[in-house]
Amino acid sequence: MSHPSLTQPVVDLLQQIHADIATINSGDVASYIPELAKANPDWFGICLVTATGAVYEVGDTALPFTIQSISKPFVYGMALEDNGRPEVLQKVGVEPTGDVFNSISLEAGTGRPRNPMINAGAIATTGMIAGKTPQSKFRRMLETFNAYAGRELVLDGTIYGSENETGHRNRAIGHMLRNFEILTVDPIPVVDLYFKQCSIEVTCRDLGIMAATLANRGINPVTGKQAIRAEYVGSVLSVMESCGTYDFAGEWIYHVGLPAKSGVAGGIIAVLPGQLGIGVFSPPLDERGNSVRGIRVCQELSRSLDLHQLSRVSMGRVTIRTKLTAAEFNSGRARTQEEQKLLREHGGLIQIYQLQGHLAFSTTETVVRDIIDHASAIKHLILDFKRVVTLNECACHLLQLVVEKLVALGGTVSFVHSQQLPLLRRYLKAKLSAQVEASFRQPEDIDSALEKCEDELLASVSSGPGAALVSTELKFELFDGLSPDEVAIITSCLQRRSYAKGAVIINAGDEARELFFLAEGHVSVLVKLPSGSRKRLATFTAGMAFGEMAVIDHAPRSAMIVADDAVTCNLLMLEDLEKIGIQHPSIKIKLLENLCLSLCRKLRKANRELSLLE
Amino acid sequence: MSHPSLTQPVVDLLQQIHADIATINSGDVASYIPELAKANPDWFGICLVTATGAVYEVGDTALPFTIQSISKPFVYGMALEDNGRPEVLQKVGVEPTGDVFNSISLEAGTGRPRNPMINAGAIATTGMIAGKTPQSKFRRMLETFNAYAGRELVLDGTIYGSENETGHRNRAIGHMLRNFEILTVDPIPVVDLYFKQCSIEVTCRDLGIMAATLANRGINPVTGKQAIRAEYVGSVLSVMESCGTYDFAGEWIYHVGLPAKSGVAGGIIAVLPGQLGIGVFSPPLDERGNSVRGIRVCQELSRSLDLHQLSRVSMGRVTIRTKLTAAEFNSGRARTQEEQKLLREHGGLIQIYQLQGHLAFSTTETVVRDIIDHASAIKHLILDFKRVVTLNECACHLLQLVVEKLVALGGTVSFVHSQQLPLLRRYLKAKLSAQVEASFRQPEDIDSALEKCEDELLASVSSGPGAALVSTELKFELFDGLSPDEVAIITSCLQRRSYAKGAVIINAGDEARELFFLAEGHVSVLVKLPSGSRKRLATFTAGMAFGEMAVIDHAPRSAMIVADDAVTCNLLMLEDLEKIGIQHPSIKIKLLENLCLSLCRKLRKANRELSLLE
User: What is the pTM of this model?
Assistant: First the structure.
């Protein structure tokens, strides 16, 4: 659908930044191995990927280069998955050193590397990857990297060969780690695996997607595949935050405010948790070994897109989408005039909250506080989770406490559309006590939740026991104002018809040839949703008429009507209505006036509800 | 309204944590001055304050104690405001030292303290507070602290006296800073001011509110008063993040993940930007000088409430509240059958996005991407900002690009309810070119925006020029199916009445005594909102009838009807309608049938719109 000449505005922004920063020519390409020195200093790509999976690229985003030290946080995540957090922390610390990248920085006495971002800590981390053979370890590593990048990556054999040839310092580190028993096996294959992990080929686009996978709690937002368990993502980002830029960490937090990691081939990644990942590629490095343009891009993106993680606006107020009560918003169950009046008077005791977005502590707290503040005025609470995107365990806990408190006060609580939130259902099933469960419901939709609460409210406030039901003779609302003789004339035209429970009385698309007077039982008006499921629009009870709209505008029936129980209807055929109009015009006038009145009431209700929801 | 026996669920959670951690009895109360040694090791309070201003307290939250080192980040913020960021960074760095709290850690050569959280950096920072005299500097300091805490704080004179007496090391630091010209004035009054800032008395509740003020971009969420400019909050939190816990910073980021600062009297603050602040008070300290229980509370809150700042879920998807087109959702302008048909066919070219929440880069990007992806199918774009809470400059920029791109394609763009977002209006006024402005509108409400787009769409798609308007004779929809003779009978009963532009034709609350046939001009149906402003519900044009609902149900008029231009109406009085019913029942039957039809159409439209919004 996109217009061919149209670029995305985010691409425009990135192009501007790319053009500005391309003019910076300082820094030198890494040269400690000849293959890296061959890089063209003009190569320059930027890729921004959102946690919702949008990929924005400008410049040289498809050129391959080696991942180098950017591999360290990803391998640290694998070590956490393979060994658990306590075991990993025992062998590698998480404190910044204030030193340069290749400092050995082992803790006095224990020999524990200070953190996993310096080479010593990274080699110790690589030594913790699960696998029986060096080959299987590397295979697992590559598979994980593939999941992060969303494509099959390969090893750059030439770079790997050179790294291996010149890697004496890293082999020395390996032996030192063996000496302190941080490594408990032959260190040489571990260092070799470390050289391999650094020699995996990626593109700038890959880096953007890998960073976005960390931003998206470990799920690659483009492929939807999980690369790392969510519980370890915070730990990976933490070591990037505190140690990812070596002795530059404080400045980086101050000026950029995004966890980041750079590599000696000119790559750099930065992550804004929950929002986006950034990959940059530009080979010339500063004296600290970081890509000169890469750092400038991160600084500029942080500034111009306002991405600093510590500079956030309050986000608590948007969780409550709407707040309604049954005094103004009702179920599709058609009610008598008397019942409508009672609902207008007492409906405030039924409180509906429609929630939306992500339920974590802060967002849930605003809802919970509001409910508890008004608890003495709530008899029936309905929470609608239809538009809730995610929720965490803390939110479940707060909601559990709300249920318990309201039930203890004698109220009922209904959670609607909670079937899409299995964590919530499991949590409540495990935690709610048996006596609470009797007053706690999880109906499928807001309408049935509301109907049940309305029924209970009406039963508790109506003047006598079942007062509305004991009228000895059935009166149709459409017969209001007609004399007994006039009613008899209509009645003589009616055709009686019975339906079993579940029978279809009207099908959508049917031609409209009759008006139905419901004499016994209940009927529901249903429509088919695009999803294929059925949604109830309204329910009618004895004394009401239905099917009048299609009769009036001669359109085909727009909805299906089904018998909820054993149903008896009296049908007034269209031709009989015509006849009555000719023979007894005053009767038809009264019928039409009553019909107008009924439509009028429905329209007023619909308009009132529209103004509440708009 | 709150029920007396009801505690807030968040208080329940805090009480549980308080009870668990109260059992920890390790650590020693600070004793380097006798007044601090008098603290009761059992004192223990926790206060959590949300960025929306909810205050939750348990335990000893009202006991006064001295703020000590927790003053450092707040004074750093004042130095930034008084001197600007470059000047401050020149005198004090932002790199962690990896050393303990009272290390001197000056940079070799320059003598610049490594960061503002160690004593040397804090004293240098205090030296940058604006003010002519030591007294006026302290007054400004106290006023700022008062704004953070939301009440008048006082100095603890005894503690101040003892600090002053024993503060030789800090005086040594002062002279060293003077030696390197980091301080360019007599260091003794600066060190004295530093002792005073450390001796300000706060409570645990104060700390919670001060932390929440940092979480809320510098605005105290309880009082609404600004304590620090928003642009500097990120910098204050950055130094807390990287340097706030001295040589414990890496562990803290890893395990707690909230910028924090502790004081030697047993206080501690932690901040989750955009969401909440935490204050804890418990005097026993560990060997690093941090409150033992305070640290445990932060760890436990971070874990159980899932507050780690780097462990966030994606939050992009909730910005679009609803997406509608004019094929299914229309303005209140009543349309002819032909116009309604054209709108159903072509209304997809008018696209409405209702936005909500906070518009920053990530949240705006999802909207912008969706619009550009569908741009070739959009002729008229309407963005409704009614439920947008905040927006930043980056969001303005992206929206500006959208306007320019759509206008370049020949479309129109309307921003509705943008009057509540002055930044957006200023930004667009400054940046949009003159040729774009002609196709860019900022109407007051969605209804008038939609009406104008519908008018333009109808003009562009209707078969002939003004085809709908050239009917030589006015036909009332309610007269459909009546013979000319029957129309003449009704017409003879009608009373002609004219209204000037702006005249009130019907007032809300009036008794309903007539039905209006609109012969010339336009009328609007208005309701008064609780805010006092008027909202248009519908507009009618010549050939339509209005005022029928109150006539039918005999309720008082529910809305006001006003002449939009010179208006002529033909009034059918209720008693005349009665007479027609008696003398010419077939006419009344046709009138009522047409009325039913009109109500039916309105009800179908309202139900359709309800299902879209629900």
Answer: 0.87
> Measuring CA to CA, which residue among A395, A55, A52 is closest to residue B318?
A52
On whether the CB atoms of residues A28 and A229 are closer than 8 A, the answer is no
Distance CA A580, CA A575 (A): 9
Domains along the sequence of chain B with CATH:
11-304 (3.40.710.10), 328-467 (3.30.750.24), 477-613 (2.60.120.10)
Amino acid at B488: A
Single-letter code of the amino acid located at A391: L
Q: Residue range A39-57: average pLDDT?
A: 96
**Residue B130 to residue B138: CA distance in whole angstroms:** 10
Which residues on chain B are in Cβ contact (under 8 Å) with A372? Answer: 2-3, 6, 8-9
The string of pLDDT tens digits covering residues B571-605 is: 999 899 989 999 999 999 999 999 998 888 888 88
In the numeric block, which tokens belong to residue B221? 């969420």
C-alpha distance from residue B423 to each of A187, B394, B426, B439 (Å): 60, 11, 5, 20
Spatial separation of the C-alpha atoms in residues A269 and A191, rounded to whole Å: 24
Interface contact flag, A239 B254, Cβ < 8 Å: yes
d(CA B240, CA B248): 12
Cβ distance of A315 and B537 shorter than 8 Å: no
Q: At what angle do helices B292-304 and B9-22 cross, to 10 degrees?
A: 140
Test B389 with A8 for CB contact under 8 angstroms.
Answer: no
Confidence (pLDDT) at A469: 45
| Contacts with B360 from chain A: Cβ below 8 Å | 306, 313
Distance from CA of B322 to the nearest CA of A (A): 10
- Put simply, the answer to whether A600 touches B599 (Cβ < 8 Å) is yes
**What amino acid is encoded at B593 in this protein?**
E
The question of whether A246 is a catalytic residue gets the answer yes
Neighbours of A426 (CB within 10 A): 11
Q: Which of A525, A331, A346 is nearest to A443 (CA)?
A: A331
A524 assigned to active site:
no
Contact B505, B568 (CB under 8 A): no
Name chain A contacts of B54, Cβ cutoff 8 Å: 365-366, 369
Judge whether residue B101 has pLDDT over 80: no
Cβ contact, residue pair A310, B238, below 8 Å: yes
Residues of B in contact with A360 (CB under 8 A): 306, 313
> What's the burial of B359, exposed, middle or buried (CB within 10 Å: 0-12/13-18/19+)?
buried
Amino acid type, A442:
Q
Report chain A's C-alpha Rg in angstroms: 35
Pairing, β A440-441 against β A412-416: parallel
pLDDT digits (tens, 9 = 90+) for A95-105: 887 666 566 67
**pLDDT mean over B442-459:** 93
Spot the catalytic one: A75, A222, A256, A264.
Answer: A264
Q: Which of A246, A353, A427, A499 is catalytic?
A: A246
B188 Cα to chain A: minimum distance (Å): 30
Q: Give residue for tokens 């004035």.
A: B185
| Alpha-carbon span B269 to B279, nearest angstrom | 5
CA distances from B447 to A259, B605, B607 (A): 45, 15, 18
Is A341 among the catalytic positions?
no
Higher model confidence: residue A509 or residue A235?
Answer: A235
- Rounded to the nearest 5 percent, the helix, strand and coil shares of chain B are 45, 20, 35
Phi/psi region, residue B266 (left: phi>0; alpha: psi -120 to 50; beta: rest), is: left
Residue B232 catalytic?
no
Which of A9, A235, A375 lies at the smallest CB-CB distance from B368? A9
Distance CA B156, CA B461 (A): 78
CA dist A75 and A236 (Å) reads: 9
- The pLDDT tens digits of the residues spanning A261-291 come to 999 999 999 999 999 999 999 999 998 889 9
